[in-house]
Amino acid sequence: MRTSIATVCLSGTLDQKLVAAREAGFDGVEIFEPDLVASPLSPEAIRTRAEDLGLSLDLYQPFRDFEGVGPERLEQNLRRAAAKFTLMNRLGIETMLLCSNVATARSGDEHLAAAQLRKLGDVADRFGVRVAYEALAWGRFVDDYETAARIVRLADHQRIGLCLDSFHILSKGHDPEAIETISADKIFFVQMADAPLLSLDVLSWSRHHRLFPGEGAFDLGTFMGHLARTGYDGPISLEVFNDTFRQADPFATAIHARRSLRWLEHETAASLGSGPSSRAAPMSTAMLPLVESPADVSYVELRTGDSDELRLLLMQLGFRPHGRHRSKQVELWSQGAARIVLGAPDSEHPQPTVAGIGLTVKDPAAALLRAEELFSAVVPREESEGEEPLVGVRAPDGSEVFFGADRGSVPTWVDEFGSTAAEHADLIERVDHVNLAQPWQYFDAAVLFFRAVLDLHTEASVEVAAPVGLVRSQVLRSDDGILRIALNLVPSGSGADAILPQHVAFATSDVLSLARAARERGFSPLDIPANYYDDIDARYQLEPALLDELRELNVMYDRDDAGEFLHFYTHSVGTVFLEVVERRDGYAGYGALNAPIRLASQYRHRANQGDLA
Amino acid sequence: MRTSIATVCLSGTLDQKLVAAREAGFDGVEIFEPDLVASPLSPEAIRTRAEDLGLSLDLYQPFRDFEGVGPERLEQNLRRAAAKFTLMNRLGIETMLLCSNVATARSGDEHLAAAQLRKLGDVADRFGVRVAYEALAWGRFVDDYETAARIVRLADHQRIGLCLDSFHILSKGHDPEAIETISADKIFFVQMADAPLLSLDVLSWSRHHRLFPGEGAFDLGTFMGHLARTGYDGPISLEVFNDTFRQADPFATAIHARRSLRWLEHETAASLGSGPSSRAAPMSTAMLPLVESPADVSYVELRTGDSDELRLLLMQLGFRPHGRHRSKQVELWSQGAARIVLGAPDSEHPQPTVAGIGLTVKDPAAALLRAEELFSAVVPREESEGEEPLVGVRAPDGSEVFFGADRGSVPTWVDEFGSTAAEHADLIERVDHVNLAQPWQYFDAAVLFFRAVLDLHTEASVEVAAPVGLVRSQVLRSDDGILRIALNLVPSGSGADAILPQHVAFATSDVLSLARAARERGFSPLDIPANYYDDIDARYQLEPALLDELRELNVMYDRDDAGEFLHFYTHSVGTVFLEVVERRDGYAGYGALNAPIRLASQYRHRANQGDLA
């Protein structure tokens, strides 16, 4: 699959954008006109620069408000187009994007539009260029791709074809299946964007909230399947207008964008494999190495300067230490199948606190290969002789994901730590979920990374009110629920990231006994206000004995259609805390209603410690 | 007018919110339930705390999903309500907000809803409390205030009344005039919020984008006029859900909120003065001191560590120095009626670079009084004997606005600077506009401040693409255009504020001659790429001679329905730059289409200087 990206997706100067696209491995770029106009590089210099970088210049865009106009304006528009064609010749760009008219069209007559496009085709012919006509979702008369396709068919000019943009088609709820009725030689260009489902006017939605494929709610695999079945084999380009990506580092965004297209290629191949193949599909697509759901979260690695405090908490929750690793500066604590690898921040792990997640998988090599094919950076790791090989990659925020082979109930690498005693079993059984706070510039990239690399599914995102702003939370999980990762988007306000810690939640089947046992070991949980218990009593009318016990132990309560959820938190140690959860009868959530209470309590606790300005 | 604010408008803990509300001078607060539930203070302690602070607790909110349900759920709901009434008794709160049912209502029968509300009224009676029923804009059956008013009338219970919320009424485009048909004793509570006009689903619009009165697009003065004519004399409360305010400093937000209600009181009084007064209006409202539009921008004060560079630029643009002030560490440069007071940052003026704006007004004392009534902090200023008194206040970002009396063509304070020579006249005539970059947490507050304190009007806001993100720009202006202030919202991404400087634009009637004269004095303007001139040529088909001259002098061009705009920029000096503009034939804009080119050029220039990481 040939890949391209519009320069508008990336921040910085045009030159920075070109270099970032090249470094991420894109084959080409679309030149977004404002980026060219603002550049001090001449068109010829841009052409040379792209050639030197090995990038093709696939599209010049956008040209607006051409068709459906009166004769006088048509003449003006043809002159305007000729000026752009001259420019395209200087750039060496063959294809120009023409958006359907939003401003100056007086008529929606398809024959008129086709006749005017034919005239445009004649001018384009003089310059040896071609025009890709795109139905904008908010076009004045032409706002769906089937109309645009009819007009192009009527124009019947070799220089006039279509541009298909997934956003304009799917945002309006149009069925992409009719793409298959379009002749491949009339599809001049394809732009792909994902988006969250919003009830916003489609122009604002398009201009501010597009996402890279795999980060939103559109079914782009099916879309691509229809496209491939036409026989289209041109570039698949990203045109993603997004307020966050406009601010983020362009080199990181370009990698993130490239990953989304690789994932999309996989989805396309999967879609083609299953759907009816009405025509040959010359578009080269390749599946990613398939990976099965992790059998286990084999460990979570925490890096903190407050290890002593964390050790105490682990001990109070019933964890036991295994001692230091034989060759690395980390130690292991475990209980049941829950394992915490504890280390201090160092130059390789400056942040975040949840520095890594270890997964037990059937085929670590396949998992690594999939991650590498998704443009993940491999974490260099040295193993001494006789140590279990672990392979891993870096998530967008710098944390690590490691894959180890499934070798029975206890990973063999456990023996690399001081104590070789059998693992200690108590009330905690395993890791339930891991919560990774993400800075604003990594959130969408992290959603894509975990979804694509680990083949996870996204649950509906929720918003949680914290004393420092709204926190958006997105859970990704494996089908069987063995792996659940909650990504929290830290409010962008200055300093807010300092007070949104990350956390690990452990699963137990008896949280009340565990809380009681922990208390006997001196544990003091995060304080939950008495008002909270009055509130859940009013809401759920709990058994008085249960309510008393919850209150006494600072255990929180939630309920969904399936069952109940009981959970408690530790205080934060630096920027990390721990949680213990009990899911009764298939409760599927994470206690989102309780999260604001927890955030407020943590905020007060830090304020009391004087950590807040 | 009695004022109140919902705790949800402010960030922080409940206690911080109460203190912030008190410090801003609110009479009372609404307790937003999640704030209470998350608080470690008991209801009794909250009551005492509010009493100690002199705040009334005006409303407990929200209670949801009560009416229109089946008999079994009704019993549950009545029990749930009784628990909340118990809590309200402990808090000493008399009124509870009941939102119209969005989830559990099975019937929209108004008689059924009224009968159920009557039962709720009976329970409320036992606790001595009352219920204010509000039609949510997204209520399942009840989504407009007239329906809610009919249900309350049918319920016919002294403990059951209405809550009116401007957002729920105006967001749906409902006419607020029918408020006048409601009996004042049935209006238990009033919540005011402004909002920008968005085509977003009303729930998301309400939860994320409300603004304080005066910051959005709603006609709240007219709304308040209708309300006052009912005879309502209860609290006017702010309930503003806003993602930014949730993150901002609660003390600054509370002042900002209090200012909005004082402005609203003024608008109400103005509305009552002009409309038909069908009933007595006991709501005490007071106009603000009226101020006329400034006669002149008498000076702009710049504080920068790079004064030498700025002096050179001013000289090249034809300004002449007057010398140092006789008692203050600032100097004056002028040309025509454009005056720049130049100083260095000091402890009183650490930032921003555009440290102050001096306005010539008819009555400085009235202008100051208006600003003070709008809760503006007065700037302490010492005058030595014989110096012109200037009075001023601080804008939300810390910059200053000073008022001086109109004493003819040249302000008398000019004589306080070294040279007493007559002012030097050249091609620059006056200040055209001032552009103040605002950090994210001050933007809306700044819109309200300038609009209310200086009685300016807002123009439509625009978004401009910069290499570091989208910049939202909002112009405020006096009717006659003498004073124009553009507020730019800096993208929130880290570090972006460092590269969005502020600027002063000067008006001339011959920008080309001025640019040429400046060049003869060694001036080198901000580089504008050749691609830009090719683009405007394609767009406007300019006279070749004019195009050549623009290109040669790095002058930019724009056009609107009225006329033409020619302008050029200086390089940035620290975080400030200068612009010279020529408005031909009543051009009313600011060259928004050219702003991205300028921002990209500034970005490159700083990158070349190595200012960027």
Automatic annotation (TrEMBL), chains A, B:
Pathway(s) the chain acts in: Aromatic compound metabolism; 3,4-dihydroxybenzoate biosynthesis
Reaction(s) the record says it catalyses: 3-dehydroshikimate = 3,4-dihydroxybenzoate + H2O
Keywords: Carbohydrate metabolism, Isomerase, Lyase, Metal-binding, Pyruvate
Enzyme's top EC category: lyase
Ranges in a coiled coil: none
Cofactor: a divalent metal cation
Record flagged with keyword Lyase: yes
Protein name in UniProt: 3-dehydroshikimate dehydratase
Enzyme Commission code(s) on record: 4.2.1.118
Keyword match Isomerase: yes
Domain VOC residue range list: 296-406, 430-571
Single Gene Ontology MF annotation: isomerase activity
GO biological-process terms attached to the record: 3,4-dihydroxybenzoate biosynthetic process
